[in-house]
Amino acid sequence: xxxxxxxxxxxxxxxxxxxxxxxxxxxxxxxxQPELLRLKTSAAASSCDQTYGFMPCTTTVLGNLFLILAYxxxxxxxxxxxxxxxxMLLEILGPGIIGGLFLPILGALPDAMLILVSGLSGSTTTxxxxxxxxxxxxxxxxxMLLTVIWGxxxxxxxxxxxxxxxxxxxxxxxxSLTGSGVSTDIWTSYAARIMAVSVVPFLVVQLPQLMSSTSxxxxxxxxxxxxxxxxxxxxxxxxxxxxxxxxxxxxxAKHKHVMSGVLRHLRKxxxxxxxxxxxxxxxxxIQKLFKSIDGNGDEYISATEMRAFIVGVQFDEVNxxxxxxxxxVMSDFDTSHDDRIDYLEFVNGISKWLGEAKSSxxxxxxxxxxxKYLDHFHKQTKxxxxxxxxxxxxxQSNEMVAGVEKPKWTSIKACLLLLLGTxxxxxxxxxxxxxxxxxxxxxxxPSFFISFIVLPLxxxxxESLYGAATMNNxxxxxxxxxxxxxxxxxxDFSAEVLVIVIVCLVMGAFxxxxxxxxxxxxxxxxxxxxxxxxxxxxxxxxxGWS
Length: 546
Hints:
- It is built from 21 helices and seven strands.
- The chain is mainly alpha-helical.
- The strands form three sheets. The chain has a three-stranded antiparallel beta sheet with strand order 3-4-7.
- It is elongated, with a radius of gyration of 31 Å.
């Protein structure tokens, strides 16, 4: 019953709107309702148009504020249902097509619906007026994700920073601007770079304005639409294959960590340098090392003998057991594939690994076969592995179906939630846009600022920050550009585009080349939000830039 409360609350809000919209009956007889929410009569028909012919409407400030809250909550509920249904499907089917294609699109669906209806109905003049709501949502959603929500994530998730890395579960320094913060993996950096690239369509559509040309604006909208759709397809393909890419990178990182650990262990047991001054293998030292590992003296190293030798190497720190380590060593050294390593294969294997260690970019002036250098190399491979995330999280996708109870029923429930969320978003997007437009008329506040501040609160629900911003910049922008092109609307959103580009590039650059974010970075994000509002106001209403 608890799960039905949000839906019942939404029905109650909608019922209140209808009751307030009609007439009030008192003991003294039938009385006309005050001017808060008035049923559309012939006197009010010219100023209050009912969406779908029956939805509540009003021309008053408080009435429209109530409608914005009611419809906004319904849109939020729809977004929540879409998120819940998507997560259920993800648990059953795993990433790939579901996680890479459908989930990002479903996450952006409420925003896309609102943008679409903002300029779809009515005359061209009406659409041109209401389309500011769509642009406000597009800009506000992206800016809020990358400023307010981004900064809040840093504040709420902060931990102590040690050696430029956040220590999970340890928060002893309080609100230290440099001593506390959060750490992310390298995939977050990739997502930030992709998000920064996603502003390209905004730049394309602004080219005629930058060149002070009026003749090519309609063509620029079409080109930007094609670019946006192309980037959207490329992004979805990347999302589909991203788990496979992550798995391959993690495997390579583990291979390098095994290599560094085994080389370090070999060097500690060798009676001298593994390489001569001229860079060639020191066969005298390597031969003694080979004989010490070859326990039965048959001039071959078996998997069992290799296991006995490297038993002291610690690989558990990268979630790798001894069997995996042995398999990696044998596959690299045993080039004859006879399940044993002869002396020549042993020499060539060590030389190959030392060469890879030398070219790994370790910041050390020592020779690659010294213990000091190999210690640095081992720590570096551990950091590289950690930056890629946890392999166990990637492997869970292969076992999700087995771990879900009643997968058939869960699939049906997920589809019903997705259907319900889509229906709610489709049904109440138009009334919400009308309420925002009417509130703007009643208060003389530009509809852009209302939608910029209020609507993202109703549509942003449990999304990946950079992924959601990328979908806003691609899918939602594509919907907006298609609307402008098909309805032949005027593109005069230079200030709004500038704000989106600035915020995306600044926050994209923040995460593109670093994975640790001290607490002070959250204040930079927070300050970008009022800066964005002020910049649009100054450029649009003081400078008159369009």
